[in-house]
Design a protein that fits this description.
The chain has 19 helices and 5 strands. It is mostly helical. The structure holds tryptophan. Tryptophan (TRP) binds next to β1 and α10.
Length: 401
C-alpha cells in the first residue's frame, strides 16, 4: 500500500473516529506523562532472573549503576527484585536451579553495595498481585505483537523452543510490564536487550490508560552510559557472557580465578604474535574490558609509564607492547573493583538468615505497594463491585421495576 493509500484508507475507515481520537489521546498522553514524571516522584525498578550467580557483565551493565543511583538520591524509591517466576518460564525442567540461585543473586546484590535501607529488595513470586495484573494486561496485547518482540524471538531460537514454547515464556513481556507498572516505576535501568520489553510495557500502559483512564505510569529505560558497558562480551570474545559458554567472570570469583581466566582464556588479537607486531584493539577483549573498567587513576598506580588508555592503545597498535603486560594491568584494575565486592559478600555469607530476613521484609513492603496499584487498576476497570455503591444502587433501581 502506498502512503497515499494508507491516508485515504484512514479517512474512509469506519473506525476513523476511534483512530483519530486515539491519535489525539496519544499526544495528550505523551504530554501528561512528561508532566507526571516531571512533577511526580521518580521511581526506579529493576530485576534479574536467578539462573546463576551474577557476572561482571551484569555489574558493568547494571549493578554498578544501581548503586550510583541509590546513593545519588535523585529517586524517591528504588525497587530491586529477583525474578524467580520469570526464571521459571524457561527453566521448568530445573526449578531447583532457580530456587538455589535466589540467595546467590541476593548475595551478589548486597555485595555490590545495594543497601536494603535505601532500596527495597524482594522476590517476584512473593507478590501475587503481579499475576493478577498480568492477567488483565494479557487482554491488551495480541499474539502477533508478542511474536514480533525481538528479544522473545531470539530467546525462542536460543532455547530451541520453536515447536513447544511454554505459554508462560511467550507471555513474559506482559508479566514484566506488570512488574514495572505495579511499582509505578518511571525509570528502569537495564541492558539494551531489554529495550523491547520496555516498549511493550509502554504500549500496555498507553492502551490501559486509553481504555480505562489515566492510571498507570509510562516507564523509561535507562541504558548504561559507557558504550563498552552496553553489552560486555565474554572472555572468548563471543557476543554474550553466558554460563553455558563458560566465558563469564563471576562477581564471587577469587583473585586467583580471575587471574587465570584473563591469563589463560582471554581472547586478544590472533594476529599479534610477537611483541613488536602491530596489534588490533577492536575485538580484543583485554581492551574491551579495560574500556569498561579502567579509570585514569589506575595508570598512576599500576602502569605509570602511560598516562591514559588512549596512550596504551596507541602503543599496542603501533607494536612493541606485549599482551601479558596489558593483561597484568587488566587483572590489577579488575581486582581493585572486585575486592570490596568480595569482602562484602564474605560478610553477608556469614549471616544467611539475615539475608533471608532482608528479602522477607522487602517482599512485604513491595507487596503493599503492588496491592495499592492493583486496587487502582481494578477501580479504573470498574471491577471493584462491592465498593461501587453507585453500581449497586443502579441495579437496585433497575430491578425495583
Ligand atoms: N527480564 C529481565 C532479565 O532477564 C529481568 C526482569 C524481570 C526485569 N522483570 C523485570 C528487569 C522488570 C527490569 C524490570 O534480566
Amino acid at each position: 500500500m502506498t502512503k497515499r493509500n494508507v491516508h485515504f484508507f484512514t479517512v474512509k475507515c469506519p473506525h476513523f473516529d476511534t483512530s483519530f481520537s486515539f491519535y489525539l489521546y496519544l499526544c495528550r498522553s505523551i504530554y501528561y506523562n512528561k508532566v507526571i514524571t516531571m512533577g511526580k516522584e521518580k521511581i526506579i525498578l529493576t530485576g534479574d532472573r536467578p539462573t546463576g550467580r551474577l557476572h561482571i557483565g551484569h555489574y558493568v551493565g547494571s549493578l554498578k549503576r544501581r548503586v550510583d543511583l541509590q546513593d545519588a538520591g535523585d529517586y524517591s524509591k528504588m525497587f530491586i527484585f529477583i525474578a524467580d517466576s520469570q526464571a521459571l518460564t524457561d527453566n521448568i525442567d530445573n526449578p531447583e536451579k532457580v530456587r538455589q540461585n535466589v540467595i546467590e543473586v541476593a548475595l551478589d546484590y548486597l555485595a555490590c553495595g545495594i543497601d536494603p535501607s535505601k532500596a527495597t529488595i524482594f522476590i517476584q513470586s512473593q507478590i501475587p498481585e503481579l499475576c493478577e495484573l498480568s492477567f488483565y494486561y494479557m487482554d491488551l496485547v495480541s499474539v502477533s505483537r508478542l511474536q514480533r518482540n525481538p528479544t522473545v524471538k531470539s530467546e525462542i531460537q536460543m532455547r530451541n523452543f520453536e515447536a513447544s514454547i511454554p505459554v508462560g515464556f511467550f507471555t513474559y513481556p506482559i508479566s514484566q510490564a506488570a512488574d514495572i507498572t505495579a511499582f509505578r516505576a518511571t525509570t528502569v535501568p537495564v541492558g539494551e536487550d531489554q529495550e523491547p520489553m520496555l516498549e511493550q510495557a509502554r504500549e500496555i500502559v498507553r492502551r490501559f490508560n486509553y481504555i480505562y483512564g489515566e492510571t498507570l505510569v509510562e516507564p523509561e529505560i535507562l541504558l548504561p552510559d559507557n558504550a563498552a558497558c552496553l553489552r560486555l562480551p565474554g572472555t572468548d570474545g563471543k557476543a554474550k557472557m553466558s554460563k553455558s559458554l563458560g566465558n563469564c567472570i563471576y562477581l564471587s570469583e577469587s583473585e586467583a580465578e580471575v587471574k587465570e581466566k584473563i591469563m589463560k582464556n582471554m581472547y586478544t588479537d590472533p594476529e599479534h604474535i610477537r611483541v613488536e607486531d602491530p596489534g588490533h584493539i577492536e575485538g580484543n577483549m583485554v581492551f574491551t574490558y579495560l574500556d569498561a573498567f579502567c579509570k585514569p587513576e589506575h595508570f598512576a598506580e599500576y602502569l605509570p609509564d602511560y598516562s591514559d588508555l588512549d596512550e596504551l592503545k596507541a602503543h599496542y597498535m603501533r607494536g612493541g607492547l606485549g599482551d601479558v603486560k596489558v593483561k597484568k594491568f587488566l587483572i590489577n584494575v579488575m581486582n581493585e573493583e572486585l575486592n570490596p565486592i568480595r569482602a562484602r559478600r564474605k560478610e553477608y555469607e556469614k549471616d544467611i538468615a539475615y539475608v533471608y530476613e532482608i528479602l522477607k521484609k522487602g517482599s512485604e513492603a513491595a507487596r503493599e505497594v503492588a496491592a495499592k496499584t492493583l486496587d487502582d487498576v481494578k477501580n479504573s476497570m470498574k471491577i471493584n463491585y462491592f465498593a461501587d455503591q453507585a453500581l449497586i444502587d443502579e441495579h437496585i433501581r433497575k430491578y425495583q421495576g
